[in-house]
Amino acid sequence: MNRKTALITGATSGIGMACARRFAVGGYNLIITGRSADKLQVLKAELEAGGVEVLALAFDVCNREATCDAVASIPDAFKPIDVLINNAGLARGLEPEYEGDFQDWDEMIDTNIKGLLNMTRFVVPEMVSLNHGHVINIGSVAGDAAYAGGGVYCATKAAVKALTDGLRIDVAHTSVRVTNLKPGLVETNFSNVRFHGDNERADNVYKGIKPLVGDDIADVAFYAASAPEHVQIAEVLVLATHQANGTVVHRESLAK
């Protein structure tokens, strides 16, 4: 029996890396992508030691030409792509919108929206042609409502929801499934990236609460992909137990 193949963007850390490991354990061969060729090779070696075949593609999803070339270079041995996990994304800064950094805005919009669109445009047509496949977009609770200082990031994740819903409508005549997976607080390098390497500020985000970890989100993604073919997990909101929504978090250390 041939193994299925999952393509995961942003696989060199956090949720993307956790998804790569979970789908490998689940019997998938993997196409892992990211901007760091060195980090991809380390992950590739780890996963291949577990007996799966791995193709590592180093490129930036924001670069449309590079994305097109990378997808076109995928050999037949890794086709068809059964699952596309659009995970590559980031937050930058937490300033009021009227004081925001233009470069931060561009980076979030280019990665979270345009990068997702680039991958969708170059991978999904074959899924439609084969009448088979599953797209899992990693959204966020931040896409449900804006919070102070996060307007642009929240807007990009609201766009992920709209784009996911739109794609699901566009492929409804096929057997291609589309999922929007929306995590809340997940302890990865997310906050470190948001605060441009300020580790102390990043650590404060998770104080007083047991946050989710990448493995928690990977488990949900694998569950969605493993559902029977007639079952489409359209949207999943995953929060830590003491997080109620994007802004309400009960922190033990602050409640005493």
Describe the structure.
- Helix content is 43%, strand content 14%.
- The protein has helices at residues 14-25, 37-48, 64-72, 102-130, 151-170, 190-194, 199-204, 214-226, 252-255, and strands at residues 5-8, 29-34, 54-58, 83-86, 134-138, 177-183, 235-238.
- It has a 7-stranded parallel β-sheet with strand order 3-2-1-4-5-6-7, sandwiched between helices.
- Helix 2 (37-48) links the parallel strand 2 and strand 3.
- The longest helix has 29 residues, at 102-130.
Short description:
43% of the residues lie in helices and 14% in strands. The chain has 256 residues and is α/β, with parallel strands linked by helices.
Question: How are the elements arranged and paired?
Answer:
Blueprint: E1 5-8, H1 14-25, E2 29-34, H2 37-48, E3 54-58, H3 64-72, E4 83-86, H4 102-130, E5 134-138, H5 151-170, E6 177-183, H6 190-194, H7 199-204, H8 214-226, E7 235-238, H9 252-255
Parallel strand pairs: 1-2, 1-4, 2-3, 4-5, 5-6, 6-7
Helix pairs in contact: 1-8, 3-4, 4-5
Poorly predicted runs: none
Rg, alpha carbons: 18 Å
Q: Label the overall shape.
A: globular
Helical proportion, percent range: 40-55%
- Cα end-to-end separation: 56 Å
Q: What share of residues are in beta strands? A: 5-15%
Give me the strand/helix succession: EHEHEHEHEHEHHHEH
User: How many helical elements?
Assistant: 9
Number of strands: 7
